[in-house]
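Thread amino acids onto this structure.
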């Protein structure tokens, strides 16, 4: 056996050992598993080179071209869309009326109840009411925590100390109640002002939209009236022109 045959045998043995390597290890070290063991890749032919399209593109959606595959997201870059697919409008006035009616019905169904709830909440006092309920509860929790700490460390208060502790707790509860309610009033006023401002903006938007639609309707009416008057004038002019032409033809016929 010469040296060339020996080297060929070593290479074949190396390739056979590589064919037993797991697929994920081959991919980790930059090897193509199809070059060594195509049976590990279902549906692939052995020694089939990868194309650039296979690496960076994915099948597009219905009616689209192949788009780039980003992570696990496949999308089409070209949908067969054409403006000719839109329905033909034969009566623009009726179409506009149907659109306006649909918008009004959608507003009644989806938005009017929410807006009415906002209007009812413009004088809301929920933050103030919650502060009045929360301040005594916080004072009770603080008093009980202080009592547990004294009991844990074995501190026994005298009668004077107990009275002073009680007075301090009462003063703290009163201060917390006053401060909490005052802060809640300020926060409630700001929230109500913001809500009122939002309601005003909504009302102004509805007003502007209504005025715009009324203006468009008025312009359409004026345009229809002008078109009718122009058509009537043209018809009258054409009639008199035709009468004059007929009279001229008759006069010419009598002269002949």
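Threaded sequence (256 positions):
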């Amino acid at each position: 056996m010469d040296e060339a045959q020996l080297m060929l045998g070593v290479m074949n043995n190396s390739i056979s050992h590589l064919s037993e390597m797991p697929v994920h290890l081959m991919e980790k070290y930059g090897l193509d598993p199809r070059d060594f063991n195509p049976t590990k890749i279902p549906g692939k032919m052995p020694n089939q080179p990868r194309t650039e399209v296979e690496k960076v593109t994915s099948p597009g959606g219905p009616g689209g071209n192949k788009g780039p595959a980003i992570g696990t997201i496949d999308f089409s870059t070209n949908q067969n869309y054409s403006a000719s697919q839109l329905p033909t409008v034969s009566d623009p006035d009726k179409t506009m009326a149907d659109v306006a009616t649909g918008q009004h019905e959608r507003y009644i169904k989806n938005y009017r109840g929410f807006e009415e709830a906002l209007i009812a909440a413009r004088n809301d006092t929920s933050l103030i009411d919650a502060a009045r309920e929360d301040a005594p509860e916080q004072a009770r929790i603080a008093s009980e925590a202080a009592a547990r700490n004294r009991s844990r460390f074995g501190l026994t208060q005298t009668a004077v100390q107990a009275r002073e502790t009680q007075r301090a707790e009462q003063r703290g509860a009163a201060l917390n109640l006053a401060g909490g309610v005052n802060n809640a009033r300020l926060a409630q006023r700001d929230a109500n002002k913001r809500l009122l401002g939002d309601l005003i903006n909504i009302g102004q938007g509805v007003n502007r939209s209504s005025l715009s639609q009324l203006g468009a309707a008025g312009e359409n009416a004026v345009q229809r009236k002008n078109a009718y008057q122009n058509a009537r004038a043209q018809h009258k002019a054409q009639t008199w022109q035709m009468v004059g032409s007929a009279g001229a033809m008759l006069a010419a016929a009598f002269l002949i």
